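Why does residue order matter? Because the sequence determines the fold. Keep that principle in mind as you read this record.
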Amino acid sequence: MFSNTGETLESDWDEMVMEDQSKNIERPKPNLTLTDVIQIIEDHIDLEDDLEFTSESDENEKMAMTDVKFDVEEPESIWFIVEDMPVFRPSLNKDRKSGDADLKRFLVKSTKYPAEARDAGIMGRVWVSFIVDKKGRVTEVMVKRGVHPSLDDEALRVVESLPDFKPGEQRAHPVNVSYTVPINFVLN
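Structure:
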C-alpha cells in the first residue's frame, strides 16, 4: 500500500478511493405499493353433471380395446455390446476369444489380393461392417471405409462368405449384433 518513501502507490490509492465511494453511495429504496387486487370468483359448475358412471357395457368396450393387436412390427434393435457376444464357428470355438482369433485367420486365408490393385501398388485397410442376426447369419454387409473399388469388393466378398456364428445373447435371448472388421491389403 505504501512505497518505501512513505508515499501511497497510485494503484492502491485508486482502490481505496473506490472502496470509500462505494460505501457512501445511497441507493434508492424500492417504493412498494399494492396496485393489483386479486379477486376470487367462485365457479358454479356442478361436478356431478360432468361425471359419467361406467356401466357393464362400458367395461366390455374397455376390455375389447386392450385386446387390440397392431400389425405394425417394431424394427429389430441392433446391439453393439451384449452379455454374450456372437462366437465365430461355434463347432470349433467354445468361447468368443478363440472365435475372434479364428475369424482373423479365416479373413486372412480367404482374402485374395486383386490383380488390378497389386499391379497398381494399391494398399490399405478396408473396414467392413455386418450384422450377426438372431440366427447367427451374417447380414447387411457394407464397406464403412474403403480404399479402392477392387479392394472394397474383395473385402465384401470375403465377409459375405463367412459361415454362421453362434448368435449373440442379451439376458439369455438371441439378439442382432453389429460387427466391424478391418481387412488389410499389404504388398510385400
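The chain is about 35% helix and 20% strand.
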